[in-house]
Amino acid sequence: MAITREKVEELTAIARRVRRHIIDMTSEAGSGHPGGSLSCGDILVALYFHVMKVDPQNPDWPERDRLVLSKGHAAPALYAVLAEKGYFPVEELLTLRKINSRLQGHPDMKKTPGVDMTTGSLGQGLSAANGMAIAAKLDGKDYRVYAVLGDGELQEGQVWEAAMAASHYKLDNLTAFVDHNGLQIDGPIAEVMSPEIIQDKFRAFGWNVVDVDGHDFEDIIRGIEEAVNTKGRPTVIVAKTVKGKGVPFMENQVDWHGKAPSRQQAEEALKALEQ
Amino acid sequence: MPKIATREAYGEALAELGEEIKDIVVLDADLSKSTKTSVFAKKFPERFFNMGIAEQNLMGTAAGLATCGKIPFASTFAVFATGRAFEQIRNSICYPNLNVKIAASHAGITVGEDGATHQSVEDIAIMRSLPNMTIIAPADAVETKQAVRAAAMLKGPVYLRLGRHPVEPIFDENYKFEPGKGVILKNGKDVALIATGTMVAEALKAAEMLAKDGIDAMVINIHTIKPIDKEVIMQAAECGAIVTAEEHSIVGGLGSAVAEVLAEEKPTPMKRIGLRDVFGQSGRPEELMKVYGLTAEDIAKAARSLRR
């Protein structure tokens, strides 16, 4: 899985396009969640363009690796990555959140090709990922399951029910990411309801824990390699990220959690995202 | 024939079906001895998953398994299944229309001594509000066995409502369960008694009581509460008076479902037998049935009052 310099450059270019899509989509929709989409974009690009075994021509391929975007409000990031990967036309991204669109405000597995699980209500994704990982073991299949959670989402009790079960059933084919950007709707997670120390909590639940820089492809891949090589228990990759990453006026700003940029703001953002 | 609890029949049916349908997996929340999934667990330990006392994760895991082609039966008490994990059932199971079977035991007031916290008298109402959900409440052990098989064969979410308390046998082995089809157990022309689950036996007894008064009652078993059999309800309406009976609140359950059909199609005088918007209390099942007006005598009384 080791990553070359050229591959990093390729992923960086894709990630920049993904960020531009996120801005365009949310601006066109007039609503949505740009902040947390921008923070987890690099993780999704690394997974879909370097790690996961998937076939965009055959989205329901039974042998594919699965991804559960538990922080479903980051749907724009997932849709942008899926479109870039070829699951559906890039132009379709601009239908986000519009009537009769395949791109719902939160991921809908029955509507969007490539979406493996319907999510959006926080705290539910890791349980579904567990179910997929258990199914793989039952069927003796080698596909892997990835889940992406928000750090604020860790406040939901169900996450810890799922964490306990993943460890109990030794789901080493499951890897969870925590998109650790430190902010939630009402403010810094540390002020609203601290889930810290995230690493210690997962460790106490029996998980292997890796820390990475969520905007450094080499580091993300290093984390996934460690997860793949860890047997007998699940791995959580705590990815330090920046909410609104790549758009200077959005970075680390709580306000951009669930607000769309105006067309003018979008132009400014797109300029910042040019090479 | 001995009385058998529907949960007992559920456990046996699961274990039999597990042999036949290899995709069936069973999950429980530390209640396998009570829900009787322990029978399946013993036979197929590799396909049984105890999720511990964690109902939300129970439902979410079942959803994930279903996306990979498994047919999960997620079992726990009705109160916890529909109450504690409602939103997981809504968002992770019903909205994506996943093939998860929720087998909820200990439904109704006949749970008895544990009291109001464990008596699920609103689960039908809660599940009925969810698109894509099929709701089945079998009346006896024979019907339960067939309902479990039917649930496994149906595509999409199914809620199976089961009881703890042994119930009288109603059907013999020749019975053919058809999902969504009400069963006319006795024809009649003066009043129709429409019952579900444990109350079917009471409705049959009520019809006997009414016969002694010269009232010819029709008795219908509605095992599938959603989608409800409109046709059989319209047949019942021909009697000109309807009594519904359920071991559940009169708010949102069978009585409401029947009333909704009648209000739109053929308004008909009716009475609903069920808990009248109250919580239960501890006591022996038979005592509770009397206190909350859920006996054959209560059904007969309601039918007589409609006739006057």
TrEMBL record, chain A:
Chain ranges of the Transketolase N-terminal domain: 14-264
Coiled-coil regions, chain positions: none
InterPro entries noted in UniProt: THDP-binding (IPR029061), Transketolase_CS (IPR049557), Transketolase_N (IPR005474)
CDD domains according to UniProt: TPP_TK
Cofactor(s), by name: thiamine diphosphate
Gene3D superfamilies per record: 3.40.50.970
UniProt EC number: 2.2.1.1
Molecular function per GO: metal ion binding; transketolase activity
Protein family: Belongs to the transketolase family.
Record field: transmembrane: none
Protein name: Transketolase subunit A
Domain of life: Bacteria
Pfam families named among the record's database cross-references: Transketolase_N
Keyword terms, alphabetized: Metal-binding, Thiamine pyrophosphate, Transferase
From TrEMBL, chain B:
EC number: 2.2.1.1
Cofactor dependency: thiamine diphosphate
Domain Transketolase-like pyrimidine-binding: from-to ranges: 4-170
GO molecular function, one term: transketolase activity
Keyword Transit peptide attributed: no
CDD domains the UniProt entry points to: TPP_PYR_DXS_TK_like
Record-linked InterPro entries: PDH/Transketolase, THDP-binding, Transketo_C/PFOR_II, Transketolase-like_Pyr-bd, Transketolase_C
UniProt keyword terms in alphabetical order: Thiamine pyrophosphate, Transferase
One Pfam family, short name: Transketolase_C
Enzyme class: transferase
Similarity field: Belongs to the transketolase family.
Name the UniProt record assigns to this protein: Transketolase subunit B
Lineage: Bacteria, Bacillati, Bacillota, Clostridia, Thermosediminibacterales
